[in-house]
Amino acid sequence: MDRVFLGVDIGGTKCAVTLGTPDGAILDRLAMPTQAETGPAAIMERLISLAHELTASSGHPIAGIGISCGGPLDTRTGMVYSPPNLPGWEGIPVRSMFEDAFAGLPVVIENDANATAVAEWKWGAGRGARNMVYLTQGTGIGGGLILDGRLYRGTNDLAGEVGHQTILPEGPLCGCGKRGCLEALASGPAIARLARESLHYRRGQRLVELAGGRPADITARHVVEAAREGDSFSRAILEEAGTYMGIGLANIIQILNPERIVLGTIAVHAGDLILNAIRRTVAERAWERAYSVCEIVPAALGDRAQDLAAIAIIESAANDRR
Amino acid sequence: MDRVFLGVDIGGTKCAVTLGTPDGAILDRLAMPTQAETGPAAIMERLISLAHELTASSGHPIAGIGISCGGPLDTRTGMVYSPPNLPGWEGIPVRSMFEDAFAGLPVVIENDANATAVAEWKWGAGRGARNMVYLTQGTGIGGGLILDGRLYRGTNDLAGEVGHQTILPEGPLCGCGKRGCLEALASGPAIARLARESLHYRRGQRLVELAGGRPADITARHVVEAAREGDSFSRAILEEAGTYMGIGLANIIQILNPERIVLGTIAVHAGDLILNAIRRTVAERAWERAYSVCEIVPAALGDRAQDLAAIAIIESAANDRR
């Protein structure tokens, strides 16, 4: 057996600790509900206990720890600053709490979008690409950039916030407070809102049915499900969201000239129902010379992505730390 | 005397050869009109003669050659592919022609926006920045990216084409064939067009006067000149262009989280008359956490930029060549 890594995934609804190998095999795993309302101190205490429990059961010494957590956070100091899904985590020294609990072990922390980008690049749909952009299109739209063969973090760990580029200057207000962001037009909640607002003048019976007869309960999952069944109303909604995504990806292609764009979450579930509109719009909005070298593909790691993300950053961080 | 470099700048109206030092001092220079209509073979022959003339007069051996030329071009093969300002240059092996003419010397080629980015980063307004975006806002809007302390070229040398991100999806047609690009809204020609189109319903007498009484002859230079004099019509035009630039820069900040953005050409001439609108819009459109670490400044190299660009890429290319 080679070295063994400990991965820690901190999320708004659940946390998990994972034992994995440097080549991305998962050996063991424990999870717990976050219970965000109990606050950072209690959550960190339970999480560190869980990590001790997992590593005690492992027959192998741990070689390093990787923590994947919602941003904003500072990878140099290891401090976390109030991620949207972890209210009250303002200035929590997450990395040093793990350093104290596992004395002597190297600990790295990365925001979850960057960490997932590294995992998809090492073991998923980004494998072999020198320049890769990862985007998750779920509750929010975030991303991570692999440029010239390594993670690019930006000046204060905010690179890759591709969901908050302006697509429509006079568009709807975004959760971030800005107007017309990609996230306000093509995230899961944006797709659900678009569907609900369109019910008034288009036919969306199947969608209302899937939502148990309550239009207010329609989610992006329902839209994808109905579109898969052939519902033309839901297909049109995904086309519209895909068009906005396509504008955002075309901008990324013009600025970064990547060879691959990996799309998580909705693109994985909806496939060509959204990818066709994305690819068509990219062809309209980016230069042929640039988009012809760029594949747009769904993410490949599925449910394992979050666990692997925390494992993936360990070696990467050791390699390219400033 | 240290090593001496030969810089070659190939432009649509003039070409120049320069002797310079690795630390950016210019020792000597010869220039010639391009006469683009004479075609690539004749131009390259005259240019290589000019380079021989310059280097023969130098008392020092040449250590390397850098060529700055309009893109698209391929930095790996050294081929140039029909830059907009050099019609007919389709597949011209510019680098190997210089390699043949100066046997044994290392020759590198870079598109002019990337080369100017490196020059501003080494010796101009970008000095000391680890992550810097250079933008020229002139006839076109192009750019170059310095990320994690080195030039980022992208997959096939098209990174940094920031002028062709979509700002208004239903906006005016761009010279590149796409709709609503930043370049179609904020370049020199776009500013002139905006001024001409606005004459019908706003007062722009001073501008028409500067253009010799011929509205069709209004240029961005006239707009900047009138704005400097206090003409409110021209100031409003620059505000509008600055607002579009601000949206484009905010997108760049969200995606790349740079610590400095260096703006060439119009920002240098117009100063705060356009920078104020740019900075205000960035504050509205980018996250505080990201724009607060990013200075937006005018370029510093002025008329020397193009000569220094060709010199600047020589060492850089030697350092980070793939």
Please explain how this structure is put together.
Two copies of one chain form a homodimer. With 322 residues, chain A is an alpha/beta fold. Chain A has two domains: 132 residues, 2-Layer Sandwich (Nucleotidyltransferase, domain 5); 176 residues, ATPase, nucleotide binding domain (Nucleotidyltransferase, domain 5, 2-Layer Sandwich), CATH 3.30.420.40. Chain A is 42% helix and 21% strand. The first copy, chain A, contains twelve helices and 13 strands. Chain A is globular, with a radius of gyration of 20 Å. The mean pLDDT of chain A is 94. Chains A and B meet through α8 of A and α8 of B.
Q: What is the subunit organization of this protein? A: homodimer
SS field, number of helical segments of chain A? 12
For the record, the CATH class of the largest domain in chain A is Alpha Beta
Mean pLDDT of chain A: 94
Salient structural properties:
homodimer, alpha/beta, Nucleotidyltransferase, domain 5, 2 domains, five-stranded mixed beta sheet, 12 helices, globular
What would a concise description of this structure say?
The structure is a homodimer of 322-residue chains. Chain A is built from 12 helices and 13 strands.
Q: Strands, helices and their partners?
A:
Two copies of one chain form a homodimer.
Chain A: E1 4-10, E2 14-20, E3 26-33, H1 40-57, E4 62-69, E5 73-74, E6 79-81, E7 90-92, H2 94-101, E8 107-111, H3 112-123, E9 132-137, E10 141-147, E11 150-152, H4 182-186, H5 188-198, H6 205-210, H7 220-229, H8 232-256, E12 260-265, H9 266-270, H10 272-285, H11 288-291, E13 295-298, H12 305-320
Parallel strand pairs in A: 1-4, 4-8, 9-12, 12-13
Antiparallel strand pairs in A: 1-2, 2-3, 5-6, 6-7, 9-10, 10-11
